[in-house]
Structures are given as structure tokens and as C-alpha cells.
Amino acid sequence: MNLFITGANRGLGFSLTKQAVKRGHRVYACMRAKNARQEELTKLSDAYPEQVQLLLLDVLNEESIVSAKAELQKQNKEVNVIINNAAVLNESRANLDELAMEEGLLAMDVNVLGPVRVAKHFLPLLTGERKTIINISSDAGSISNTYGGNYFYGMSKAALNMFSEKLRLTYPDIRVFSIHPGWMHTDMGGEKAPLDPDIAADGILDILEGKTVTDSAHSYIDYTGKKYPF
């Protein structure tokens, strides 16, 4: 399969790219800008030039999304899977009276409108028998299983879950999932997180490949394929 992954230069995005390459898939690996955090991704691309193509893409910048789409179209590349992974976690420990509204706007822009922008432009490129859109969500986006604090991130992921469900109902020929990847040992998850992102990535790839059977009528699941409560 050909996977289009945002935020591929670190964390879960890099694990998804790395594990997908091991399984023989091709990855269009998107990163916001060229910087030191892309070193491992660049090494992977150099080692597997036929499987990893690097693209500059900022989910906040619609022009960059259009440019990435045009680049793939020019090369007659096919996309079978879109994985909206790029996200931001901010103000997670702030009390209500400490919240900076501009940080809330940023969370919604990156975590919700970012995937909307990508889907808007790349959904028409989806092809193949297992066309899929995966929006990387979180348990923080579950309203029925929520917890106090972490306002902006939780609100944005709940909105992302709604977007996934809207897509699922609007495009019945496309598999759509909001996936809670678990509490991972990444920059976002922190050092205390118990889950290796490679394990979460393998779980997500098992879902993509059909090795893990999921309920197509429920878009919100975890990385093992189990239903997660909205």
C-alpha cells in the first residue's frame, strides 16, 4: 500500500513510517520543515529510496498541502491510505483561569482543521480496494470516558472524532477511523508513558492490512482494533 503520513519525522509518525517500510509499503512521509528532528527520517529515506518519499507539508498552511498534492500528481503517484498524525499538545496542565486563548485556537487549527485540510485535498487521490483515512486521536477525545483538565487537547480530539464519523457516513466506500494509539513514550507522551510507539504503529498497520478485524460501523477505536467509547 501507499501511505500518506503527516508528522512523519518523529514520534508515532516516524514509527508508522519505519514499521510500514519493514512491511514493504511505500510511504509519502510529510514533515513541516527541514530541521534537526528529521535526521532519522532522512536516514530511512536514504536507505529505502524506493519506499520513502519526503514531502514538506504544514497542516496549518493549505498552500503547502496543495503543493504536496501537485507533486504526487505530477509523478503519477497513487495514495491508498491517509494518516493524519500531526498534532500539538499545549496547555495540558493549565488551570481554567490560566488558559491562553491563542493556544486553544492553535490546538483546534492543528488537531482538527489540519486533518480537514489534508482530507479536503487528498481524499480525491485515494484509490484501491482498501482506501482508508486514519485520524490519530486520543483517549482524551472520549466524552463518556473523560477526565478533568487538559482542556484544549481533549476538546480538539473530540472534534476530530466527530470529523471522522462524518467522513465515515459521507463516504461509505472509504474506511475511516479515529484511532487512540495508547499512552506512548514519545515527546508528546513523555518519559513515564509505558507504550513503545513501534508497538502502537504495528497495531495500526495490522488494522490497515486487515490482520485485525474491526467494526466498520464504529470509527473510534484503539490501536488493537477495539471500540473506544465516544
From TrEMBL:
SUPFAM superfamilies: NAD(P)-binding Rossmann-fold domains. Keywords: NADP, Oxidoreductase. One of its GO terms (cellular component) is cytoplasm. GO terms for molecular function: oxidoreductase activity. The keyword NADP applies. Belongs to the short-chain dehydrogenases/reductases (SDR) family. This is NAD(P)-dependent dehydrogenase, short-chain alcohol dehydrogenase family.
